[in-house]
């Protein structure tokens, strides 16, 4: 009988291993196989008719050529005539690689036509928008002249919330597992935050999957269930990566419980590998997916996200233990976690410095762009958090003989550190929705000559990605 039970157990283990390997291969195929070549955000490089052109008669169509391949189904072009009405034929534009074509139905209108466009890059998922203008007969006034709209703010806020929920869930999962595997005794009760973190990450990922398409197109919340936008998202790199993340969640749900019940070197290695795979899904939809040195940037961002999740989630788990009354054992757990926290901060410092050099590039861009100023704010908050944490931990070590006072001091230190880490995560989400300084600089705006009698081209970047810098 015992032999039969052993055979059955072995069979179940083999099937479980096969399932895990299959899910891992599917995730890697989706994430790595969908990666495209390095490029910057999609900017307009040529328009026909050209910006500022004055024509004798109306052309049959408008053609816009961009700097890189575009995400299919996530581009719009509108032509506003001099009378303020739509002058295109309606419907989605025709995509031809890196170009979009839209038919023109100008009738007998004479004057200035404004072409408003909004496209999404196929590689990094960022949305750019702009406007050019041409005239038929002679230039005239047009109410559409000026910068294009920034899209629906409510939809954008929902997408930001989804991104924040996703990273918060990842942090809780990773931190809870790290404290369980590295800091608690083998027979200690698990913190109990793994399942809630898993659920929050799933909700954030699904919400991001549905909100991404409407946000890139500037649509309202009524378009969350638009099948064409969802299909376009699923067909693109952003959708592939989010589906890969859901597969990883299935893997974590299948193997997470059994692994955590057997702490040891193999379990820790498996948890670290799963954390890096999760972090890779953020890197693949971050600023690292475009620009110079993409492979190195993806590696640095993956490590950056993993380290941030470990630190933030570990602090949140310690706070949960403190609120639940960790008692006299909390200082010992906190001391064990301090080694992980120190290593995480070191990784954050190295990878963050490299990313700053890549994404900012100059002192002028650091102080003269929104991305640069957010980076400075993040560095300032990080410095304050580290200084406060070091000071409070010094006080804790001075009270090592008084376990009650040491426990109270640890609780104060953990809660303060948690507040600082939360502020860092909020700043990170804001940076995700901001164009990198290397593309936000004035000389990066492309697509029109220096003399523009009609409409200037402007670049907008939608917050449509996962945490990065």
TrEMBL record:
Membrane topology: Multi-pass membrane protein
Domain Copper resistance protein D: start-end pairs: 332-430
This protein's UniProt keywords: Cell membrane, Copper, Membrane, Metal-binding, Signal, Transmembrane, Transmembrane helix
Record keyword Transmembrane present: yes
Transmembrane segments: 161-183, 195-215, 235-257, 269-290, 296-321, 333-354, 374-392, 413-435
One GO CC term on file: plasma membrane
Single GO term (MF): copper ion binding
UniProt cross-references to SUPFAM superfamilies, sorted A to Z: E set domains
Subcellular location, record wording: Cell membrane
InterPro entries (alphabetical): CopC/D, CopC_dom, Cu-R_CopD_dom, Cu-Rt/internalin_Ig-like, Ig_E-set
Top-level division of the source organism's lineage: Bacteria
GO BP: copper ion transport; response to copper ion
Residue intervals of the CopC domain: 41-136
UniProt name for this protein: Copper resistance protein CopC
Provenance organism: Streptomyces tateyamensis
Lineage: Bacteria, Bacillati, Actinomycetota, Actinomycetes, Kitasatosporales
């Amino acid at each position: 009988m015992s032999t039969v039970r052993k055979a059955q157990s072995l069979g179940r283990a083999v099937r479980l291993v096969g399932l895990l390997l299959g899910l891992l291969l599917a995730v890697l195929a989706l994430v790595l196989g969908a990666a495209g070549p390095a490029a910057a955000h999609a900017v307009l490089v040529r328009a026909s008719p050209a910006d500022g052109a004055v024509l004798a008669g109306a052309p049959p169509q408008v053609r816009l050529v961009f700097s890189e391949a575009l995400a299919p189904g996530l581009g719009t072009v509108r032509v506003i005539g001099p009378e303020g009405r739509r002058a295109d034929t309606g419907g989605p534009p025709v995509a031809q690689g890196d170009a979009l074509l839209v038919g023109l139905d100008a009738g007998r209108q004479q004057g200035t036509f404004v072409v408003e466009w909004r496209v999404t890059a196929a590689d990094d998922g960022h949305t750019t928008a702009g406007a050019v203008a041409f005239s038929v007969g002679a230039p005239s006034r047009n109410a559409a002249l000026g910068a294009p709209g920034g899209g629906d703010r409510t939809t954008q806020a929902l997408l930001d919330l989804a991104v924040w929920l996703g990273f918060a869930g990842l942090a809780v999962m990773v931190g809870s597992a790290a404290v369980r595997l590295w800091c608690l005794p083998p027979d200690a009760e698990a913190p109990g935050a793994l399942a809630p973190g898993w659920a929050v990450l799933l909700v954030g990922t699904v919400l991001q999957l549905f909100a991404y398409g409407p946000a890139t197109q500037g649509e309202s919340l009524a378009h969350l269930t638009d099948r064409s936008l969802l299909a376009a998202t699923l067909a693109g790199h952003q959708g592939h990566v989010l589906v890969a993340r859901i597969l990883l969640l299935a893997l974590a749900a299948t193997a997470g419980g059994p692994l955590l019940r057997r702490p040891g070197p193999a379990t820790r290695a498996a948890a670290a590998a799963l954390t890096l795979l999760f972090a890779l899904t953020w890197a693949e939809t971050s600023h690292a997916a475009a620009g110079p040195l993409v492979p190195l940037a993806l590696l640095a961002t993956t490590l950056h996200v993993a380290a941030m999740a470990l630190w933030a989630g570990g602090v949140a788990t310690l706070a949960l233990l403190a609120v639940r009354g960790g008692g006299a054992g909390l200082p010992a757990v906190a001391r064990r976690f301090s080694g992980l926290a120190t290593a995480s901060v070191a990784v954050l410092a190295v990878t963050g410095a490299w990313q700053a050099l890549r994404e900012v590039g100059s002192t002028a861009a650091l102080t003269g762009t929104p991305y640069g100023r957010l980076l400075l704010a993040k560095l300032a908050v990080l410095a304050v958090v580290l200084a406060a944490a070091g000071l409070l931990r010094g006080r804790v070590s001075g009270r090592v003989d008084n376990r009650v006072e040491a426990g109270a001091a640890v609780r104060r230190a953990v809660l303060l550190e948690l507040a600082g880490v939360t502020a860092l995560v909020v700043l990170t989400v804001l940076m995700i929705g901001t164009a990198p300084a290397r593309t936000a600089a004035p000389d990066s705006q492309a697509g029109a000559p220096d003399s523009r009698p009609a409409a200037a081209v402007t670049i907008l970047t939608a917050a449509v990605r996962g945490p990065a810098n």
